[in-house]
Amino acid sequence: MPLSHPRRSALSEQVIAALRAQITSGEWPVGSRIPTEPELVEQLGVARNTVREAVRALAHNGLLDIRQGSGTYVVATSELAGVMHRRFAGADPRHIAELRSSLESSAARLAAQRRTEKDLKQLDALLQRREEAWESGDAETFVAADATFHMAVVAASHNDVMTALYADLVEVLRDWLRDDVGGDMSPETHMDHGRLVDAIRVGDEATAAEEAASYPMACKPGRFTAPAGD
Length: 230
Prior knowledge:
230 residues, mainly alpha, Arc Repressor Mutant, subunit A, Four Helix Bundle (Hemerythrin (Met), subunit A), 10 helices
């Protein structure tokens, strides 16, 4: 529905909030192209300049990426996620793997303690989706399914701070996984996550932590270049 028309600054904030809501709700998922400027003008019932200002503001905050000649794309789900993405996009892949290993290992240990039946049903469903995505041979589909599965493992820790931090980092981790998977989706490179889910199910904290920690470090040969002295 068209938005009301208060003074310009308040209207601009309204449009920013409306666009942000589309992103945070998942209506516009990460990687998707948002509607064109004329479409947004029609949907929101505001002037083109107001839409343009709102889109630029969200691009500045890291949620959107304006690509000339292609459109505007969602790159993060929150301002903090956008900051994280910009800050760590060029980081050493080994450091990203180490961070992911630490976070996921701690979360998996807690998940083995605190998981609910609802968590287990979610993990089972997402594990199945992950396997189907791998079998499809589509790398982008697999990256999305794998990231969603690992997010669910962290959420099963029922540690809100850890879950929020992981969610804000997830796009950096998704980029890392996308690069790691590449086009090599052969049986030899597949990593089964069934043992992780089983360990969480039976409350085996040590195995859950060990399994979760091992995945980010099990990269392609030569993926990491150790610095001198290692």
